[in-house]
Amino acid sequence: MASMRRILMCRPTYFRIAYEINPWMNRRVGSDPGESARQWQALHDALVGLGVTVELLDPVDGLPDLVFTANAGLVYRDLFLSSRFRYGERQGETPVFDRWFAEHGFEVEHTPDEHHFEGAGDALFCGETLFAGYRFRSDARTMQWVGDRIGVEVLPLELVDPRYYHLDTCFCPIAPDAAVFFPGAFDEYGRSVLRDRIRTLIEVSAEEAFSFSCNAVVVGRSVLLNEGAPKLAKALERHGYRTIPLTLTEFIKAGGSAKCLTFRLDGEDAARWRSAADRSAAV
Ligand code: ARG
Asked: Rounded to an integer, what distance in angstroms lies between the CA atom of residue 58 and that of residue 54?
């Protein structure tokens, strides 16, 4: 059966370290354009190889972080809730994303203008629940607004380590009742929420979290992630997953990896509403 999975990506044509808005970015280190293009292409090809339809957003000169399409906004069925970026450096991306979603049949809506929201970088479904990271980028109040707007339960999780400034850098749902997470990025309360609400939780060590291993793309039983996480790979294998390690060092220089470079348009595998939509589409 043909896969219905669709992911939005953007070529790194204009990707570079042009500013510093998270602890990973350092303008003096810079990035290598040829190497960035090769690494991005390998991720793209691996997704296509898994049967994913990859849609491409045209890159824009002057918007280096547009490659991180996970931050476009949040998709829920045919609604696109557009991001409100915290830093001016990324705010120019919003009209570009809005145009793409409007042209591709989504209803485009904005969150209230007084609070920040960085989309699927901070808001991730596990089952029916939206797990929502806040503090460094998104505001907790916007997350509640998002939950009310789409009618789902939101569990806000405070992020406490500036290196793990987006939820998708330290938490990755792999199925409606299973996720990978790095405990050190959350406070005691956040850890207890995750433990109470997700049946299977795979813990990532500090060392492997630092290789961006939580920033993974899940396609069925395959998990694509940055290399350098052998312990996590073993744990995932025990749970019936196989990992596809990729070299994504150029993007880590900007504070992003596999997951940040992708935006799932039909709902993540771990989102319960996706399978419900698939079931009704199959009737
Ligand atoms: N340089 C980008 C920023 O700081 C990286 C974004 C990474 N995206 C993500 N979903 N974690 O905004």
From this structure: 13
Q: pLDDT tens for residues 25-35?
A: 999 998 999 99
User: 72 near 93, Cβ under 8 Å?
Assistant: yes
Write down the number of H helices and E strands in the chain.
9, 15
CATH code: domain of residue 256: 3.75.10.10
The whole-angstrom separation of Cα 174 and Cα 187 is 22
State how many domains the chain has: 1
CA distances from 280 to 76, 130, 253 (A): 15, 21, 42
Ligand 1 center to 93 CA (angstroms): 12
The pLDDT of residue 4 is 87
At 76-119, the pLDDT tens digits run 999 999 999 999 999 999 999 999 999 999 999 999 988 999 99
Q: Give the distance (Å) from ligand 1 centre to CA of residue 110.
A: 20
Range(s) of the domain holding residue 170: 6-282
Closest residue to atom 7 of ligand 1, CA basis:
256
Residue 75 forms beta bridges with which residues?
80
What was the pLDDT predicted at 278?
Answer: 58
Amino acid 231 reads K
Q: Is 204 exposed, middle or buried (0-12, 13-18, 19+ CB in 10 A)?
A: buried
183 touches 177 (CB < 8 A): no
123 DSSP assignment:
E
**Model confidence pTM above 0.70:** yes
Q: What ligand 1 atom has the least distance to the C-alpha of 256?
A: 7
Looking at residue 65, its pLDDT comes to 98
Give pLDDT, residue 276: 54
Residue 1 falls inside a structural domain: no
Whether the predicted pLDDT of 45 surpasses 70: yes
From 20, 69, 71, 131, give the residue whose CB has the most ligand 1 atoms within 8 Å, as the site to mutate.
71
